[in-house]
Amino acid sequence: MNSPFKTGSMGNREPFSAFICDESALDVLRPVVIEMGWQPEKCNKGGLRNAIQSLSIAASPAILMVDLSESGDPLNDINALAEVCEPGTVVIAVGQVNDVRLYRDLLASGIHDYLLKPLSAGQLRDALTQAQAVFASPRNADGDSDQEHVATAVVGTRGGVGASTLATSLAWLFASEHHRSTALLDLDVHFGTGALALDLEPGRGLTDAIENPSRIDGLFIERAMIRANDNLAIMSAEAPINSPLMTDGTAFLQLQEEFRQAFDMTVVDLPRNMLINFPHLLTDVNVVTLVTELTLASARDTIRILSWLKQNAPACHPLIVCNRMQSGSAEISKADFEASIERKINFQIPFDQKAAANAAKLGQTFIEANKGSKTVAPIREIAKMIVGVAEDDGASIEEAGQKGSMLGKFDLKSLLGSTPKKDKAPAEPAE
């Protein structure tokens, strides 16, 4: 079993609960529980089966002690316990079978410790103290706990410009090449492709969060997120298309807060409608990666979104990424586009249909499937710039965005062929 009992935060849950078969063991346990500052009433009569029945209708505690004495198949019952326990629960098993193989199998299943009957006060005190210490451990035990969290929201100016493709690639780069623990939040609740790009089932994590925002804590995050690899986890959904999205956005804000505590990086694949409906989603976002293309509609909507960001999320640093660049076939020239939005395009990603098809066939992110392609070089540079935001406070992005401001803003009609106003800079030839 892939261990479901992982370290996490106690959050607002009960600190301790026990399910013990015999009164003599309970008599030893209760004074120690009082000594730990917990309620002796949480020491229940009954073994593992009683624990499963009780926890199937109530939240599991931070530390759970279960008695295996009456269990005919302890390992199978432990698996059943995992189904009703919230991740992060530290489980201490108690039993009367002195068997090294059983002990090892129980530890492998995710149990924190196994205590042999008859129980002693000293034995219980040591075990409970060690279990409590699990929650005092820092989030990053590798020494990076002082590393600042960086969040980026990837927004497409139009449907189909490749924002989701870029979001999954950035998340993969942060996790695999920059070795940062990364959360990918796909907020296209009905039609998101984040999990699909990683060849994963989306699960119910995001829909559960929307339906029950009060349940969101570090332990919920561990259970609800789907792991792509050791450093990358995704939360997404494939909600029925006959079920409209009913939320005030509270769940999304809480999810971001938990991500900030549990991960080094957050990537939010943010549809345009979600950006407008829930502006608070950008409260703690460092960089808004705005994905666009050289079309009149994209120019218009880039202008509108940049203006919206200036008013609603002034602390965010916008990063303009022009995707699917094709020489000589753009609807409008790069120079006219940059003049209209009053800033330079920060990065240009060439159009590569074969690379996109290759990624889809392999069930991998665009960059993972095409590591050696020249197409992915700009994506690596984007990731590098975003990772560096914590140290630079976004200065490099801000400076890059302001270089084009002197060009002035074209009237959109001029992009359709009418004569530009005299005070505008001459357009460069279309690429």
Automatic annotation (TrEMBL):
SUPFAM superfamilies hit by this protein: CheY-like, P-loop containing nucleoside triphosphate hydrolases
Keywords: ATP-binding, Nucleotide-binding
Record bears the keyword Nucleotide-binding: yes
Listed InterPro entries: CheY-like_superfamily, P-loop_NTPase, ParA/MinD_ATPase
Official protein name in the record: Pilus assembly protein CpaE
Organism encoding this protein: Erythrobacter westpacificensis
